[in-house]
Design goal:
There is one protein chain. By secondary structure, the chain is an all-alpha fold. It is about 70% helix and about 0% strand. The N and C termini lie far apart (about 80 Å).
């Protein structure tokens, strides 16, 4: 470096490099300017000055200087290396790799360049190149442990675990017998466990077990040693030894479910789907009873039998499990039992059991068959459990009566208000749900979880401004909304995005959805630092797991929701593009002078309000950007705070396609992925791609209403297309004709006949009838009344069950809302939509959407009458009116303020 410079300037060049490494950028710039004063065309100095400026956020100058330096000295590996570092800082990894490769052509043995190149190859999953680079590093510096390990890991990632084993064994051959020293025991033990996991991956179980026993003294992590040993014993079929080891592990941690699962495998009583024969259930019951004698304080040993026991034995086990938890007052009991509701019959047994417990405690103050009196709180937690039980079963009226009784019993328990909020949300009264969540939050202002639950309910009720103020109470700087983004608070951004989408603010909805997508890009970027760190610290098994996790990162549910939400926004922008300024001016010119004046006043007020909010945010950010040392940290200003530029995109469908491709790659088994794909490609006139989406929907669930709609809509659209003229069009036409014959729903049938067959097969399902009605109207718009009648003739039948306290019906609230929107917007029959609303208001009396008689949206409820008679949102009712809640306009519950207990 700096070889062409005189000694004085060469020393200054070394100072530039050192200053860059120690982050003393001003000092480095000063040295660079001193060299350039005498040698203004020195390429390496220009490049290093550019790299230093890049670290000072002067990117445009940095790129200009680095390119100029490279132009002046194309054969300098330093210039190419610096250019690569510049690209790497901007996440342009492919370009950075090209620069590093050019540097390698000039200086093939440069350790630093090779190391940087290997990190980029690991990041970009260029595994073949990664293996080559790590091999070159090992050849150049074979006495360095990290090079051996890096070469082994490279082969493992490149699907060559056997080669990785050979490399690790060769590395062990270079070590002395007394290795490792005391300060490297953990790292060496991790390397040995990694090698054994590779042997297990390759299927060399005997060899792996032998190696494990041989190196036992050198492995520090004894728990991992035992878990690895028992895993190998089970795979070798040595089940008796495995059983003893699992017994030993359970004595160390009797609440580890994985150990119980392993023990069941050892005794031959394990099933993937949980189906057991009566004989197997008897043996399992005996096994867990004996384990219960050994581990009396274990919760898992009592809970696991509830998954496989049936009938009276299930009831007995559930009874003994539930009683002590009700006495103790465990709020999470229902969450623990909730998975049992997916097994037929068990919910009924639980209901009968809990009702018996409730009745016994009410009448005698004790459990059935017991003489000891229960504390008063036992009734409270029994009511709490029953409320959640009936909520799960959709019996909201009974559920609310139970939770109201619990609140009357002990009004100071926060969990009661949180659960009532959840029940009201499920029942459809989102404003009241937000109000009770706010009440719970106010009871403990230091509880972050309760605060987050409150924010979630507010966003579901579209109270975005109030939700923002509540959410920032727990941010780092306080009152700093940007911190929610900095903390990658994705649940908040998704919930607020959905709220903005419901309100029609597509700009802000897009902004929030794309913020979540950016978080995933940041998570992908964050793995970069671990490529060298994990090799250095020898956390090899965790490192490989992390890379596998990163490879499936975009299949996470949050990313799916964000990408799907963004696509829906772009589709809506395509269907209803925002008006341009010229169009708005044209519309304004048609207004009366008085209307124009009112509009201008509104615009001025909105601009003034926006300006004031911006100034307040700037003041807050300025105050919060001053650290304890007195230094000011400038935060980047958001150029598009309202998402207006995002909503003004020229080609919304092109933008949507980018996110659709990510969903198709990472969520191929989601119906929503292919439904959005169909909607998008039909709008883009991409016939074959739309048909591909239809085929994927049929593959996943041919009976689903959306699959049926897309199938019929597609061939109906194709039927109205012009006859093919070009060879490519004829080819597409022939492909579609051939494919149509392979679809059982359409084989030998017209579209009307296929729709009738679908209806006949699913005539008892509301959503299937709605889909058939929609298709009937699309196929023949003159048959609208028939389509509406088809939907209105649907019946909401009770679900058959035993021991029910009140009816459970089939219809779901969200399905009924979707049908109402279908009647009003697609079938465009407002009378039918009104009739449907009145009908659904009877089934969902707490739904604000249908203005049910018990909802906060109904004008005739006591709830609203109370609200109207209050001043400043404070209720004046007496202490006995515990069943009346008053929701103010900001969604806050005030009814409890005047209660005297």
């Amino acid at each position: 470096m700096g070889a062409s410079l005189p000694p004085k300037e060469a020393n200054l060049f070394k100072l530039i490099v050192k200053s860059y490494e120690t982050k003393q950028y001003k000092k480095g710039l000063k040295a660079a300017d001193a060299i350039l004063k005498k040698f203004p065309d020195h390429g390496e100095t220009l490049s290093m000055k550019g790299l230093t400026l890049n670290c000072m956020d002067r990117k445009s100058e940095a790129y200009e200087l680095v390119r100029q330096g490279l132009k002046n000295d194309l054969k300098s590996h330093v210039c190419w290396h610096v250019y690569g570092l510049l690209y790497r800082s901007d996440r342009e990894y492919r370009e950075a790799i090209k620069c590093y490769r050019n540097a390698m052509k000039i200086d093939s043995d440069n350790i630093e360049i090779l190391r940087d190149l290997s990190l980029l190859q690991a990041q970009m999953r260029d595994l073949t190149g990664f293996v080559e680079t790590r091999q070159q590093l090992l050849t150049l510096k074979s006495n360095h442990r990290m090079n051996w390990i890096g070469f082994a890991v490279a082969h493992h990632l490149n699907s060559n675990a056997s080669k990785a084993i050979e490399i690790l064994e060769a590395y062990e051959g270079t070590l002395e017998d007394d290795y490792p020293p005391e300060n490297e025991r953990c790292e060496h033990g991790e390397m040995l466990l990694y090698k054994i996991s590779l042997l297990e991956e390759c299927g060399f179980f005997e060899r792996a077990l032998e190696e494990l026993h041989k190196k036992e003294l050198k492995i520090v992590d004894k728990l991992e040693y035992k878990e690895q040993e028992v895993s190998l014993l089970v795979k070798l079929g040595r089940l008796e030894e495995g059983e003893k080891l699992y017994q030993g592990l359970l004595s160390m941690n009797p609440d580890n479910y994985r150990y119980y699962e392993g023990l069941q495998k050892c005794v031959g009583l394990y099933s993937e789907n949980g189906d057991f024969s009566p004989d197997e259930i008897d043996r399992l019951d005996a096994l867990y009873k004996s384990l219960g004698q050994q581990f009396k304080w274990s919760s898992a040993v009592k809970r696991i039998p509830l998954d496989f026991l049936q009938g009276d034995r299930f009831r007995e086990a559930a009874d003994s499990y539930i009683r002590p938890l009700l006495t103790k007052g465990v709020p999470s009991l229902f969450s623990d039992l909730s998975s049992l509701y997916n097994q037929p019959g068990k919910a009924d047994i639980l209901e009968q059991l809990i009702l018996e417990l409730e009745n016994s405690i009410r009448t005698t103050g004790q459990y059935p068959g017991r003489v000891e009196k229960e504390p008063p709180s036992t009734l409270l937690w029994t009511l709490f459990l029953l409320a959640q039980h009936y909520d799960r079963r959709g019996q909201y009226e009974i559920s609310l009566s139970k939770i109201n009784e619990a609140i009357e019993h002990t009004p100071t328990v926060i969990d009661l208000y949180s659960v009532k909020s959840r029940i009201l949300k499920h029942a459809g009264d989102l404003a009241a749900a937000a109000a009770f969540a706010e009440e719970a939050r106010c009871m403990d202002l230091a509880d972050r979880y309760v605060n987050s639950e409150c924010v979630k309910r507010m966003l579901q009720a579209d109270q975005v401004a109030l939700a923002e103020k509540t959410a920032v109470l727990f941010t780092k700087d306080g009152d700093q909304h940007n911190n929610l983004h900095d903390m990658q608070c994705m649940w908040y951004e998704l919930a607020s995005a959905e709220s903005y989408f419901r309100q029609g603010d597509l700009g802000l909805a897009l902004k929030k959805f794309l913020a979540v997508e950016k978080h995933y890009a940041d998570i992908t970027e964050d793995q970069f630092d671990f490529h060298s760190y994990c090799l250095r610290k020898m956390t090899l098994r965790t490192y490989v797991e992390m890379l596998k996790f990163q490879d499936r990162l975009h299949s996470h549910s949050y990313f799916h929701k964000a990408a799907a939400g963004a696509i829906r926004c772009y589709i809506k922008l395509h269907d209803s593009p925002p008006k341009s300024t010229a169009e708005e001016d044209n519309d304004t010119s048609k207004l009366l002078p008085s209307q124009k004046k009112k509009m201008r006043q509104k615009q001025r007020k909105a601009e003034a309000r926006a300006k004031k909010e911006t100034e307040e945010k700037n003041e807050e950010s300025s105050a919060s950007s001053i650290s304890k040392s007195g230094k000011r940290h400038a935060k980047p200003i958001d150029p598009d705070p309202r998402g207006e530029k995002l909503s003004q995109v020229e080609d919304p469908l092109l933008e949507a396609t980018k996110y659709l491709k990510l969903l198709q790659k990472n969520s191929p088994d989601s119906l929503e992925t292919h439904f959005l794909s169909f909607e998008l490609y039909m709008r883009k006139q991409k016939i074959l791609l739309a048909f591909q989406a239809v085929k994927q929907l049929l593959r996943l669930d041919a009976e689903h209403p959306d699959s049926h709609c897309c199938l019929i809509k597609f061939f109906h659209k194709v039927g109205y297309m012009n006859a093919p003229v070009t060879d490519s069009d004829k080819l597409i036409w022939s492909v579609l004709e051939a494919e149509r014959q392979t679809i059982s729903w359409l084989h030998g049938k017209s579209l009307f006949e296929a729709n009738n067959s679908f209806l006949e097969k699913h005539k008892d399902s509301l959503m299937h009838r709605a889909a058939s009605g929609e298709i009937l109207y699309i196929l023949d718009s003159d048959r609208r009344s028939e389509a509406v009648k088809l939907i209105e003739e649907s019946s909401n039948n009770p679900v058959p069950r035993n021991g029910a306290l009140g009816p459970i019906r089939e219809w779901k609230l969200e399905d009924c809302i979707a049908v109402h929107k279908l009647l009003g917007t697609v079938l465009v029959d407002q009378d039918a939509a009104l009739r449907w609303k009145v009908r659904c208001a009877e089934f969902f009396p707490y739904s604000t959407y249908f203005e049910g008689c018990h909802s906060s949206a109904s004008p005739n409820t006591i709830l609203n009458q109370r609200c109207k008679s209050t001043e400043n949102g404070i209720s004046t009712h007496s202490a006995g009116d515990h069943d009346v809640e008053c929701v103010t306009s900001n969604g806050k519950l005030e009814a409890f303020k005047d209660l005297t207990i």
